[in-house]
Specification:
203 residues, mainly alpha, two-stranded antiparallel sheet, 6 helices
Length: 203
């Protein structure tokens, strides 16, 4: 089957609501394979290295783009790990989302890695970007955040093997190690999205 590489920039397309989740089979894979097998058996230091490399690639993708392009919304084709409601974002909105999610996951990992079960619940609908912050500020905040996040976790997590869990809406209950794996997996999804948005500029 050929992949659909078409892009449009139509105003406000009809998409699924925030928090609608993943397609059924993808959701099953996330809950019963990716979370309990891949993420649970991942290597912490390798995860950290992958996270650093992906963020470096994201920052490279931003080079030479003026604020107008950073703030231009583009509808990208469906991709693995991306909710339908997230397909019509700008690069700036994608970075804003990364900042929100990285900060939330950092809090969860630090808590779990110190034997503390976080209060509340994780929600994909609650971490969507508002898209109101100037792109220059978003880029600065993202750059500053990813420059220190790995070090903050290295210094702050006391027990990488802690069995305390916090539920993710797609992957189910996850340990600090699983959430730390998700940092780079999530960055990889949105690196692909940023590249797809840039291809949309050419249409």
């Amino acid at each position: 089957m050929e992949e659909n590489h078409s892009f449009t920039m139509n105003p406000e397309p009809k998409l699924a609501p925030p928090g609608a989740g993943l397609p059924f089979l993808t959701a099953l894979l996330a809950r019963y394979i990716t979370g309990p097998l891949i993420a649970a058996n991942s290597d912490w230091d390798k995860n950290a290295n992958h996270f650093e490399q992906l963020n470096h690639k994201i920052l490279l993708e931003l080079q030479g783009l003026d604020p107008g392009l950073l703030e231009q919304k583009v509808l990208v084709p469906p991709q693995a790990g991306l909710e339908d409601s997230s397909r019509y974002w700008s690069i700036s909105m994608t970075l804003e989302h990364l900042c929100i999610v990285n900060a939330a996951m950092k809090r969860v990992i630090l808590a779990l890695g110190n034997g503390i079960a976080p209060e509340g619940e994780a929600s994909t609908a609650a971490v969507k970007p508002a898209g109101q912050t100037p792109s220059s500020q978003v880029v600065q905040e993202f750059s500053a955040q990813v420059a220190t996040l790995n070090d903050d976790l290295t210094k702050g997590v006391k027990d990488r093997t802690s069995k305390i869990r916090f539920k993710h809406p797609w992957f189910g209950p996850m340990t600090a190690r699983q959430w730390q794996w998700l940092l780079h997996a999530h960055a990889g999804v949105h690196l692909k999205q940023i590249r797809a948005i840039k291809r949309g500029f050419e249409k």
